[in-house]
Amino acid sequence: MQQILEIFETAAAHPHEQARAWKQETGGRVIGIFPMHFPGELAHAAGALPVIIQEDDQPITVGLSSVFNFYCGYNRSVVDQAMRGEFAFLDAILFGDHCVQLLGTADVLRDHMPATPILFNQLITTLSAPWAMEETRKTFRQLWTELEALIGRPIPEEDVRASIRLFNRNRSLIRRIYEMRRSGRIALTGRQLQHIVKSSMVMDKARHTALLETLLEQVADAPAPERAIRVYLSGHLCQAPKLEILDLVEQCGGVVVDDDLYHGFRYISTDIAEEGPPLDALANWYLQRNKRVPCPTRADKTTDWETFLLGAVKTSQAAGLIILMAKFCEPHMYFYPEIKEAFERQGIPYLLVETEHESMAMESLKTRMETFFEVAKRRIAA
Ligand code: SF4
Q1: C-alpha angle with apex 55: 104 to 113, nearest 5 degrees?
Q2: Which CATH class name applies to 15-153?
Q3: Within 6 Å (CB) of ligand 1, which residues are found?
Q4: In terms of C-beta density within 10 A (0-12 exposed, 13-18 middle, 19 or more buried), how is residue 222 classed?
Q5: Which end of the chain is more exposed for a tag (fewer CB within 10 A), N or C?
Q6: What is the phi/psi pair of residue 351, to 5°?
Q7: pTM higher than 0.90 for the full model?
Q8: What residues in the chain have per-residue pLDDT under 50?
Q9: What's the pLDDT tens digit per position in 139-170?
Q10: How close is the Cα of 37 to the center of ligand 1, in Å?
Q11: Can you tell me which atom of ligand 1 is nearest the CA of 72?
């Protein structure tokens, strides 16, 4: 088990190295995909390795001239990586327009990487609109056609179905780990869980799935420490939270029992139907996954994030909520007041942690987190 976790950790820490190694080994294409709404299945069916583009931990240097310093760490890091030549190995980049800041980043990448095809596709944001299904089908049809032009051959429906089946299997295995964590039957740390999900975003899916199957065979029932205070982790769109923050939760006496992070449950929440026309299945997946885990970058009259979070905290029997908000993430900032009010009304402890790409003052965060856990403890005792 430890050996598999180490493979996941290495892939998560060095996504470009492992993608380059895959490319060298197979001679295949690597397609970078921007978070959070485009399925990797189509790129996989095109024979490519889809890799979700990650924030790295390098300081922003050369990128400073091309991106506003009031953009989120993810955007600034991506621009910086592009200008450092880190994406030169990518054969194409698949962009969505899920927030205004990413639009600027797409332009910088187009400017700095003129030889790299940038497949820019616009997904409808109003998910409950009557025309949403048709528009989404059109977008995925366009992407399908663009990928066919990129590889110079048609992508048969059967290949897309096979990729959907593989990705579903991968998601379902990670969800099983989530269920075990929720029910306290597994003592994986927050850091280890992030490695599992993040490596799934960047590794060859068949290999990752095979490793997950072995991991689940080996995983012994090793319950989480009984005295740990159960917490739910929310937020952090697009980018993985710093591992030190996840460690801090545990150092302060907590255990994360569930989350809606993109580098977490959000990424694996929803499967794509394996029957019927794949284009319909992909469009349905896009429209339905917001009901499983609402996203502040989408508009859907039938769901809201705060109600989802109240229910998720209750279901996971968490004593409180820790919200990780990337600094300058506008979609998250717009929703936070609603979440805050809902949790205050219910008297459920919550803690907002604003995260930064640059180094953070961990000592003062530790004090705030200890206070949060003290409040949660008293509530449990009351
Ligand atoms: S949604 Fe937030 S984290 Fe994602 S790119 Fe936009 S501002 Fe950054």
Answers
A1: 50
A2: alpha beta
A3: 72, 74-75, 99, 101-102, 237-239, 297, 326, 329-332
A4: exposed
A5: C
A6: -140, 125
A7: yes
A8: none
A9: 999 999 999 999 999 999 999 999 999 999 99
A10: 12
A11: 8
